[in-house]
Amino acid sequence: MQAPRGTRDFGPNEMAARRGLEERLRNVLRTYHYHEVATPAFEELELFLAKSGPGIRDEIYDFKDKSGRELALRPELTAPTMRFYFANLKMEPKPLRLFYFGPCYRYDRPQAGRYREFWQLGIELLGDETPNAHAEVLRLALQLFEEAGLKNFVLRVGHLGILRALLEEAGVKRADQAPLMRYIDKKDLAALEKALQERGGEKAADTILRFFQLERLEELRPLAASPDAMTAFQHLESTWAALAALGADMTRVRIDPTIARGLEYYTGLVFELDAPDLGAEKQLLGGGAYDLSGVFNEQPIASMGFALGFDRTLVALERTQVPPTTPGRVDVILGALVPEAWPEAARLAQILRKSGRVVELESQPVGIKKLLGRASQIRARHAVFLGTKELERKVVAVKDLDTGTQSEISAAELASKL
Ligand code: HAM
Known about the structure:
Elements: H1 12-31, E1 35-36, E2 42-44, H2 45-52, E3 62-64, E4 70-73, H3 78-89, E5 96-105, E6 117-126, H4 131-148, E7 154-159, H5 160-169, H6 178-185, H7 189-211, H8 217-220, H9 227-245, E8 253-255, E9 266-274, E10 283-290, E11 303-309, H10 310-319, E12 332-336, H11 342-354, E13 359-361, H12 368-377, E14 382-386, H13 388-393, E15 395-400, E16 406-410, H14 414-417
Parallel strand pairs: 1-5, 7-8, 12-13, 12-14
Antiparallel strand pairs: 2-4, 3-4, 5-6, 6-11, 7-9, 9-10, 10-11, 14-15, 15-16
Helix pairs in contact: 1-4, 4-9, 5-9
Residues 76, 78, 106, 108, 114-115, 118, 120, 122, 124, 262-263, 283-288, 290, 305-307, 309, 311-312 line the site of histidyl-adenosine monophosphate (HAM).
């Protein structure tokens, strides 16, 4: 039997690579003072319908439990984190920096880099919406990929305030923008142009499509005509300057006015990070400023965050030949040559393990040849064995498998001498 479509089993090599990357990313988060939280794998379906509309039902795993509750496997972790925040963390001092790492589920069509079960590592910054704080979030996003060892990636940054103001000027009211935002998110410019022509005429369509060609910050300024657009532009401009002050490699950062983001809770600065080498599933991270307070009937709280697609990041690292972490090397393989020596072998194995060594202990008495065969199979550094003679003299025989030399070490000194 196979794992369900869109899901995967991970063998020891893959798990070592995954854990290796996870550790490196966690370390970066620690240095930015983010704190881990965890929420359930499934939630009330309502949590995800509230901001994304009923359309999202086709894209998620929803089900009724035995008591008829409508539930869903989480497609992402921002809404669950905010549910948790409003229920239990509201009183924490601000700014509050949270992170999470866990599996998410989407009923996507599986292909390379797109799965039905995938992992996200994400952050939410609550209670600080200054451009400097937003810049630090962007800097953190970049640093995660720097530390992961990825060579080729680009961070694209936009602002929904500018995009929405332009759509409004083009005759599309805020309330009617959702379908257009979807075309923009899907990069379906033909559908967008048609919708704009229907609503605002030829000129409106022209303005928006021209706006989408822009790539430099300064080019946006003249377009920010309305007060809302100007506020948004200034926020983007200040964030940009702060990002440079935080030492970001600005050659990796671009303005992209076309970022609309699929999820409908975003309100301001938005960004996506791609690995251009990857093709269709090249987006490794996405995020922005958002507001989910309405879902919980709460007062708004400044919210900003991103999620990194952990599986895609691993695919990107493989493609660019960054050597993955391999399973840790076995320090010692330990074997008793006769049954009477096994309790002593077991005792020594425990001493070595307590000292931090990775030890494989043979469960049955073995011959030397078999022990060495196994040692080379698992790439052990040392093979340690003891028979009747060694037992009597309180020593062990140690073979260094890198140099091939064999020596005798007193059992009492084994942990310190290896
Ligand atoms: P998202 O853009 O929907 O944002 O997902 C973030 C990342 O998850 C994507 O950039 C992609 O790398 C990865 N991803 C999404 N779907 C799949 C899939 N089917 N297979 C593999 N990887 C996938 C969010 O989820 C927001 N909650 C991010 C956020 C946090 N916004 C504010 N705070």
